[in-house]
Amino acid sequence: MQMEKVINCFRKSPDAVARLICFPWAGGGSIHYARWGNVISSSVEVFAVKLPGRESRAKEPFFQNMQQIVDEVIAALLPLLKEKPFALFGHSFGAFTSFAVADALKRLHNLEPVHIFLSGASAPYSETRIKTPKRSDLTDDDFLKWLISIGGTPPELLANPEVLNLFLPALKADLHVVENYKCDKPENPFLSCPVTCFDGKDDIPHDLQAWKDMTSGDFTVRILDGAHFYLKEAGNEKLILDYVTNHLEASQMDYF
């Protein structure tokens, strides 16, 4: 039951060579990524993480800190992560949760993904990130102004007070988690897998290079057209999914 509560998987692929575990952006649900399971190659099974306070977990209280997310995701997925190769994908807030989960998996269980795909975020220990103003404490009006300024939120959602009342608390709760997540820059890389960073070229600048400190493996940066939610655009989504599929299929040749 724990697995069904925490993970949304639209298409089971028992013969998949690898699993892609996707972490939502702040305030986001699991549907966007779960849908990837229907369009990506059957060689990859997509697991979309579903956090409390939204979708089928709407009545559950939001998590207050990163440790709660890490503990829940690992508890739900550990047996499956030992079963076959896996990769992590996270955008924005999801990049931080991907990092925190990868760190805990390595430290506590000596498990490592075959690839980590990070998107739209500076590394949590980078100066750029540490100096980012806190947004979760803003009044709703100021928060909305900021939200409109970064783009990516559908205008019809912003214009609908009822929907906003559901959406804003989840977004603020996730930002509270990430704004209070502290971690030191790794003295030595704790992973050896490849890390790929994606970003939208019109987004605010992120310190992508700082992510390199987490791995001794290959490190790649891919900049795509668009702003913060560039990955929602169909052309970019196809580029990302093709890239992910190619790398996961190729990694299996090294794995076995």
UniProtKB/TrEMBL annotation:
Record domain Thioesterase: where: 19-240
Enzyme class label: hydrolase
Catalytic activity: (9Z)-octadecenoyl-[ACP] + H2O = (9Z)-octadecenoate + holo-[ACP] + H(+)
Listed GO biological process terms: medium-chain fatty acid biosynthetic process
Stored Pfam families: Thioesterase
Entry GO MF terms: fatty acyl-[ACP] hydrolase activity
EC nos: 3.1.2.14
Swiss-Prot/TrEMBL keywords: Fatty acid biosynthesis, Fatty acid metabolism, Hydrolase, Lipid biosynthesis, Lipid metabolism
Origin: domain of life: Eukaryota
InterPro entries named among the record's database cross-references: TEII (IPR012223), Thioesterase (IPR001031)
Similarity remark: Belongs to the thioesterase family.
Protein name: S-acyl fatty acid synthase thioesterase, medium chain
Organism: Solea senegalensis (Senegalese sole)
